Amino acid sequence: MPVTINGDGSIAGLSVGGLGNGGIVDADSLASNAVTTAKLHNDAVTTSHMPAGSVIQVKYAQSKTTIYRNSSSYGNLSTYNVSITPTSSSNILIYQYNLIVRVRENNEHGAFAWIAISDDAGSSYLAENYHRIYGYDGSGYDLDCSASSFAIKTAGSTSARTYYIYTKMADGDSYEINPAGNQNNSAVTVMEIAA
Predict the structure, then answer these.
(1) For the residues 141-148, what does the mean pLDDT come to?
(2) What pLDDT is attached to residue 153?
(3) Which CATH class name applies to 50-193?
(4) Is this prediction's pTM over 0.85?
(5) What is the residue extent of each domain of the chain?
(6) Confidence at residue 80, expressed as pLDDT on a 0 to 100 scale
């Protein structure tokens, strides 16, 4: 079929690919759903174009090192500090920890320890949780368990921030992270989710 340039500027008789690579084609001339995933460049879809609920980035820290605590004041578990720089102030940040812990009381009825999450170096806490053991015979106890919690907030800005975990003993003798050393693995994760 011959190619005809019409008076209104349209071209008749062109077959698919007729303009060849580098041809002049604008967005309005593309048929619906004409661009497939395979034809997208690796960097064609930026994070600002991801649909709501998409995971934009994930940061994490993990360790098998045993950490021993017996202070009644909050102390930072710096091994688990995680930094993230949000790509959008409206995106959601979800922070979660899963720690293998042991709460110990040597010879009394009970003990409990606190774990807190902060993103401002301990000036305030996004979440505080306590873990408790109690024995009625008063002869001392150990509680080994997996402790987990999370904090969710809107990023609010695109400034970098660091998430911290703090622990303290409220009562009892000691609190340990990864009490069995290499047989335990504790981790923290922060995710940025598209709003």
Answers:
(1) 83
(2) 97
(3) mainly beta
(4) no
(5) 50-193
(6) 97
